[in-house]
């Protein structure tokens, strides 16, 4: 039987105390096996302490789009900031990038500052590093991101290309357009990351199962579709062993107890995403016993990046 190693990553760890607690509750319930830390989150130090206390595998969720930079020299007069002195936002960052307004030297400065702050908070380098709102796969940024990972010896990242995504008719058209853009950027990033010796799990899931679209059956379906898609293809250069009977999957999730303003965020207070009932819906879905039993039945082992 094919062995499946599943990394269930709770993103946005450090965003606020309520998000932190929800992610920890998921970890203690065996529903999340890995977390990704926002070092510019208002509760980042608290999150790092919780990871130490409960021995939670933790990596870096690099943030260039929400809140404030952590690099002191970039907190004023930086191309990464809007007129209010904060990052440009999910779509604003992409617009500024497309207009050639962002200095890649400043992107690199900020990414390195976030790695250093992660090390200060946790006592170690991140075993994996991905991008908040998928900024790490964007044109130009992908090259700088890869350089930083190689310089620090960070081996793993995330490449958000989800098998079967286009057939998910429950995803709103506007959101699907954004996802298609993320997919195109990700496919154009594969060669860059490979050249820098960076690795990632065989399969990524998490766009079709986000928020209100998360259900036990949707997670099962996404995993089954992805495994079927993977086993029908020749292994990619990043994972060249055709004899392997192990497949690795990362499931990206955003569980938590919804943020309550003004507490939370990355410098601007909590956004609608973090305040949404959908964070609690994800938490409640992930801890359902039938999901856990499905993992056991299908020989799916929950793990972290260090286990692959």
UniProtKB/TrEMBL annotation:
Transmembrane segments: none annotated. Its cofactor is Mg(2+). SUPFAM superfamilies: Glycoside hydrolase/deacetylase. InterPro entries: Glyco_hydro/deAcase_b/a-brl, YdjC-like. Keywords: Carbohydrate metabolism, Hydrolase, Magnesium, Metal-binding. GO terms for biological process: carbohydrate metabolic process. One of its GO terms (molecular function) is deacetylase activity. Belongs to the YdjC deacetylase family. This is Carbohydrate deacetylase. It comes from Apteryx mantelli (North Island brown kiwi).
